[in-house]
UniProtKB/TrEMBL annotation:
This is Transcriptional regulator GntR family. It comes from the Bacteria. Keywords: DNA-binding, Transcription, Transcription regulation. The keyword Transcription regulation applies. The keyword Ribonucleoprotein does not apply. GO terms for molecular function: DNA binding. It comes from Vibrio maritimus.
Amino acid sequence: MVDRAYWNFLDPQLIEWMDGISDVEQFCGQFLGLRRAIEPEACALAATFASAEQRIELSATFQEMVEVSEAEPFDQMKWLDVDTRFHSLIFNATGNDFFLPFGNILTTMFVNFLQFSSDGGSTCINEHRRIYEAIMAGDSMKAREASANHLREENHRLPVAS
């Protein structure tokens, strides 16, 4: 068996296989660590480089997020879909082709992560709103900060690192 140090954890087939992992908390903690390392920068780049079409699509997706978050009863599967699309759109709007695979990976890993880390249908809609507004305003510093704040452990039902 090949040592884990040589596994390609970003391979979609491996990610699908990891669907059945036993230590979900560790998986989610590591995924959150990856997101914290790259997603704030993706938001900053999207604020700077998103095209008019991408901003329109992001706006429509965010509006859908608001509608889903306010719907009674709350539909967790609809939220997972729209939240995944929102974050994937951000990676696609970076203007940097090396960020694109991360947006694609999110669609595979996000469902497992959000099902574990979302507290009883919590949507963090206000954190998403701050990210969205900063990107739409073209404010890369605020977009980076809003994303970093969204990705803190205490927002994701994960044990807070000491």
